[in-house]
């Protein structure tokens, strides 16, 4: 198969490894190399792009660290099944995280209602128990592969008329910013190892009891907490990486 690849231009100011990285990412993003595809070896990639093996190695390492590639010793380099990699990062939405990793975000609203705050919700959002909150439960996907289920709770007083807006597209944070003037400033997350419930298993296309990350997140702006989210993320499509140094 002939591959249309953008070769680095030595007259441009960007480093060759950066141009090579962007060219390879583009082939993943546009589906030329779908999930599970084995990439050509470093020598062949170098010929395709007109750069050295060292340049290719640098580019591949960066893409691998972002979670888009899996390099297996003795086998080769493969496009990784849609995976979100969590680690040290800025305060971003799921939509932005997916975009940063070259994945096409997918979202489907499963439930969007108002209900009284439970003690847990009230404590997280710093409101009175029983106060009305908006619940938004969504199935999140990357490249049409289910990754997790996120359930967000927001004080109804901060988002009046939210239910009348319809599905928050493309991002809940975008809707909050554009419609209600709410922009996140700080968030606190807790990760726990858990399992997928019977209710969520069919949606996530796994067996009930499969490994999962359960993530609790409280997001605040200058006025205080405006979102409390509980997410169940597939253990095989969500991972946490940290860089440790002295």
From TrEMBL:
UniProt KW keywords: DNA-binding, Transcription, Transcription regulation
Any matching Pfam family: GntR
Domain HTH gntR-type, first and last residues per copy: 14-82
BP GO annotations: negative regulation of DNA-templated transcription
Keyword Transcription regulation: yes
GO molecular function term, any single one: DNA binding
Name the UniProt record assigns to this protein: GntR family transcriptional regulator
Organism: Pseudaminobacter soli (ex Zhang et al. 2022)
